[in-house]
Fold each of these.
Amino acid sequence: MLGLVTTQGATPRRRGRTWGGLLVPLSCPGCGAVDEVVCPACRDRLLRGPLLRRPLADGTTVVASAAWRGPARRLVVAAKESGRRDVGVVLARAVARAVVEVAWGPGTGPHDPPLLLVAPPVRLVSVLRRGARPTPDLAEDAARLLRAAGAQVQAVQLLRHTRAVADQGGLDREERADNLAGAFETSSRRIGSAGVRRSSAVVVVDDVVTTGATVQAVAAALREGGLKVLGAGVVASA
């Protein structure tokens, strides 16, 4: 399954796109290579490099496809902040690769299918600002890739905000933890509508982990809801 996720169809290319009647050449956000959505070198850094494992303070294990620097960082920023949705297919493969390790890698215990992928809930103001839901979309794309490879995987939105939270940008480690502590809860209505069992196994999905505050807050809410959190699969980790 891992080989299918990381290599099959993993070279998205587009010679240009139309804007205002003009042909605008694409460039790879990772290195600037022209006429590449993501160039082969940057793609390989995400999809063929060694996976990174990182235990968080609450015991949740994070698996990342790359370190949060260089091309990986620039690719995530391009997709999340600059509207480069065409980069999303490579980021989704990076997440799917990490999820495979979390859910089926060495040392993992058995769990009943389907595996659930859960992303942090997105604030409405963020959706309106970006015109998209980057992390939930990433989870859905990764789930589709894994299903195509033969796995029983479902991306579901099970969490909701319990209160308003500040933007994480500019906050230090302790401030981020305080900002998100108790900020999410599992929605019984969403669990019922998705047909999810309370004992289902879950992998948390995010684009990047820096302090780990978001993943820990999501994992805590899922565990309080009775779900089994196997770990987190992300594109990149600091």
Amino acid sequence: MAITVDQIKTSLNQCMDPEVPLSIVEMGLVYGIDISESNDVNIKMTMTTQGCPLHQTIVQDVARYVKKVPGVNNVKVDIVWDPPWTMDKMSEAAKAKLKSFSKSGAPAPIDYETALPQGIGSLVQQEDGSMVLANEHNQGFMVNQAIVDFWKSCNGKRKITELVDVFAQTTGLQRSQVEKEVIQLIGQLRDGGLITIPTPDSPNVEFRK
């Protein structure tokens, strides 16, 4: 049974970019899909940034989604940096979606190397024992203990890499298993107004004395 590029694309449409709620196809990250006569699939793709901490996770996800197409044999994912990705590569629909996600102006992308997330808002215990994190507008989000612990660990002093370590310890999972969850969690908490990520100030003013 011959496999088509469309089948592969349809499956990859469910593979989400970890940083924005769009698929890697909508984001324009897939540069090429090659299918051999023996149904081996070679994916050529890029990332939005070279320093993406989820490099490995995305490659594994892509391979997993390609393998969901019946008849696929081997999957090879090549990451290329040429041509570099720009927002122009996104589909029109994706650009429109992105605009609607960020009605108040696009949220600044999180710099995973330097960001120091700081938990804000308050924790409210409901009468039935369930926990809710409330932001300053009193919007509440149902959370579990793991998320509460994570929110508390965002103390404005830990980098995201350290938060991944903390989350891995509290959940007892491997670092590689929780990386993606932590990044998504930070995005969701930030969107919900439950953590703030201060932007680093302009170059240190102290040096100008």
Amino acid sequence: MGQAKIRGTPEQRKQAAIERQLSLRPKHIVCNNCQAELSEMAPIDVAGMHGIDAAFVASCPHCGHDTYAIKGEREAVANMHMAIEDATGSEAQAGVVPSANKV
């Protein structure tokens, strides 16, 4: 408990976690379906997802396809990828967002 007090109130710690995740947001991701450049994306709550640093989803205005950007440990990202496939009922495509794409 003493360490938590040092890091701030629960609200301050939550805000700091949100800011850390948003700092990992790429400038854009490429739609896995039609290859459109997507800059509007929403953060996904990754609290409690061990090994996931940040995750975002963008819905393509051109084709309606959802594309995800996930950053974290390789195994955790693979597990989240499979969970997305299970939740959406469709096969998801994996891609890579280059480091140069960071804000």
Amino acid sequence: MHLEANFDGLVGPSHNYAGLSLGNLASQHNASVASNPKAAAKQGLDKMLALTELGMVQGVLAPQSRPDLTTLRQLGFTGSDAKVLEQAHRQAPQLLSACYSASSMWSANAATVSPSADSLDNKVHFTPANLVNKLHRAIEHPQTSRTLAAVFNDPHYFVHHDALPSHDSLGDEGAANHTRLCSSYGEQGLQLFVYGKSAINNGQVAPQRYPARQTLEASQAVARLHQLNPRHTLFIQQNPEVIDQGVFHNDVIAVGNHNMLFCHQQAFLNQPQALNDIRRAFGDAELHILEVATAEVSIEQAVKSYLFNTQILTLPSGEMALIAPTECLEQPQVAAYLATLTDRQQPIKQVHYFDVKQSMQNGGGPACLRLRVTLSAAELAAVNPHCLIDRAQHQRLSAWVDKHYRDRISFDDLRDVALLNESQQALDELTQLLHLGSIYPFQR
């Protein structure tokens, strides 16, 4: 029996708003607003517990250690930790913000994962995303590799690849541009990779205002690394026009689960052909495609609400549920659409709303916060059990947040070496709670 587990990124103690992500409108609009790391982490943990109580297997991924002093020193800042922070704050504030970013909370960007049912060697494959398009994310993948290896640590079941070479031609944003459609989690599925541009084919259409972060070449490389069957692997292009309207990842405009694809009418380039290609590649089994018309929900409302950055879950009962941010209730078109969703001829029969506002203000909704991992019973038993959420672990982690996290951070706080010391102390304790070992450079 296979299931799909969700591993959410735990919001780090340095969670702040810096507007670092060009093309992510929420990130840009909330630059320099004071953040509340404690509330952010609690909101994430509460969503994790709620999904556990819906009957799902829910895990947690530890945050990155921030600020990234190694990168700051590589960039020429010298002296004690306090002096490095002070120099960076005065001379290069954007670099300091990048090295303080808590964006690893969005674990949909952590990696691309392929289950053993799809890989020729019958193992679960992980490739950390290189995230080269944004400096604050491009420095994440070495730590991401260590964290994933500590959670999925049995080589009999799990294969960990290095991130792709750090070059724009191989820009890889992880599971935010990848989904898997299947009739059953344990059977061969369709691996669907969505890319923004081809780095080699210069004649292909591409966005003009905002960057296309995922390349076709990166997606093809990940498929090779994961030993995927070409007959069950499909590469389609995201609509460049919606990238230029703030749809920086495919999971802002489309989400899939099981045999269900929920997408906007303008999600893909040449959408009628793209959907026909998906149907053909999926085969003769039943596939549900729910396409939201522009007349029902505009691109602007979809981006503001993150209607498609929701999670679709298959509950133990067999029904599907949509996990949506409360912002969906604040956009009139989206609220009206979701009010009638369960009455439509499609598998989603429940809608649950969650407050993840601290994440949403920085540009990430429920789907950004989670990495999906399809596992057999034996593979699940091989996962680090301390990284799975139940009520007791939720209480322990909530108490840890209360003990270590601030309830307000502004840019000027980033120069304070006390924040660095608090963060390292918190993460050192977290590695013990989650039995991760010494995964952080400061622990060595």
